[in-house]
Amino acid sequence: MCWVEMREIILPSHSNDTLGPFVLDASAIINLLGTGIAGRLLSCLQVPVLAEQTALREVTRHPIPKLSHAAELAALESAGLLRSMAMDEQAKEIFRELIANDLSEGLDDGEAATIAYAITHSAATIPVVDERKATRIFKQKWAGRIAIGTLSLISDERILMMLAQEEMREAVYSALIHARMRVPEETRQWAIELIGTERAASCPSIGAGRK
Questions:
Q1: CATH classification for the domain delimited by 3-206, as one of 3.30.530.20, 3.30.200.20, 3.40.50.1010, 3.40.50.720
Q2: Looking at residues 177-181, what average pLDDT do you find?
């Protein structure tokens, strides 16, 4: 039995609704690097994990000091755990639409490329984006499709079945501290209970002190 099944905590994952493949935005890539065990997490998913080249280029540093983002990303690609992809013409058309609006409605290049590639890749492909605006616009335009954030990806049932509770705790805390991974309000209590209230108080992105 998975450790999390024995805890009365609402999980941020969508279980069987999110089998993948997944397309990672730059923020998701940075968050995964921030866990310190990106390769282990991705290997547990056992489905293709992709990143459009535009989003990959936005990853310019490793969130953990003294580590090389380029070296780790190259290792992930070499192991087949992360695949660099390029938009086709259909995806580029959606991309241009997503970046054409004003600041209140337009997305940055990496988010737009991630969503455009996911939409055109297959009906089952899921973009992993963390920004509220990107998620909102995605839901407005593609109400029948699913987009998730990094925390939902990390808490996928396939990962929870493979990781011990302590390993998950350290991975999430590391991503919160080093990458400032966003924690949506509906999953805040899960994250706080996982890493502990004292640690949560030191994580600016978790919003532990909010009411």
A1: 3.40.50.1010
A2: 96
